[in-house]
Please model this.
Amino acid sequence: MPDPGPSPLQSGLPGAAAHFGAHVLGTAHAHTFGGLPAVPVLPSPPPGPAAEARQPSPALERILRGPSGLGTASLHLTRSEDPPAPAEPGTPAAPVAGNPIPGLYHHPVAEPDPARVEEVSRRIKAWALDEVELYPEDWEDQFDGFSVGRYMVACHPDAPTVEHLMVATRLMVAENAVDDCYCEDHGGSPIGLGGRLLLAHTALDPLHTTEEYQPEWARSLQSDAPRRAYRSAMEYLVQLASPSQADRFRHDMARLHLGYLAEAAWAQTEYVPEVWEYLAMRQFNNFRPCPTITDTVGGYELPADLHAQAPMQRVIALAGNATTIVNDLYSYTKELAAPGRHMNLPVVIADREGTSDQEGYLKAVEVHNDLMHAFEAEAAALAAACPVPSVLRFLRGVAVWVDGNHYWHQTNTYRYSLPDFW
Model:
């Protein structure tokens, strides 16, 4: 499959944004006097050939560059640190480690800034060891092999400071601690998972109870590593996030926990879901909490009314779904080698549709590609219909997160290797 090149979302605005400058000035005026521009609600097209055929306009380059022109300079934040300048559109990315999955639709990214990677990696290890006592010594190789600093710098190249990057990095590490310790690799089990997740969720969404019982709950937040990590990471988030951004994150974490519970229920009953049921579960048990904070990490805010619009919710959901199937595909051989039966999209397709393992895997690649095309088309349509600066920047951030997520999976050869299906 030919390399699709840099993301179309890293390249310009459809023709509908020809009057962008005037719209920006109007939007700035509306915000100054307390109003919000009306946002057209776009109906979600049904899946099918027509939706697949609607490719993003090549003019989308400007979306990822952000607002420019008369009256837009004040819409960019003044940064206390200067993140590395993005490459010009069309600049070929340098070769990176690992091989991409043949036929997988993705966009190459530039290597993340090594100075930021080193600093984030140093800080996150100090946080994990000293602040929250997240893991014992014999897990250190696994922690280092996760390469979370490189992951987060690749996903958030517009973060104004390293501390903004650290907000995303702590949350990513905390989420993985809950997954490993409660659900999977390090003592996790579906039995009793609901109770453990509920109590962990109170580290994100605090318990409001009586004076008599409040101290017991507060002590419980220190009772295990996942809860310590959740509590600490959330405390750092709320220092930089607005109340609506923090609440948005809590909501998406509740979605994630609901997905964990569905997968655990199927494991307990040894039920293999239908493909559509598996994809429904993966819409909740997925990466959505990570790109949902892209504006917090970027040092700005997508207003709650704009975030809640149905077209924006569809874009975010498609991005989360596509990036999660990337994880299913790259972690396929790792999960096959682990004890027990791990459910992932290739396995479910092979089981439910009666295909070989190879055919199930290649069909899962097609599902991912369809989700990616839908994500890009919907993002392009939303950008054209609502060229508000914060909307354009948020769409840019989500697209960059999608590409950075693939980069990390492809290049993390410590964790992942590809099956021999080609």
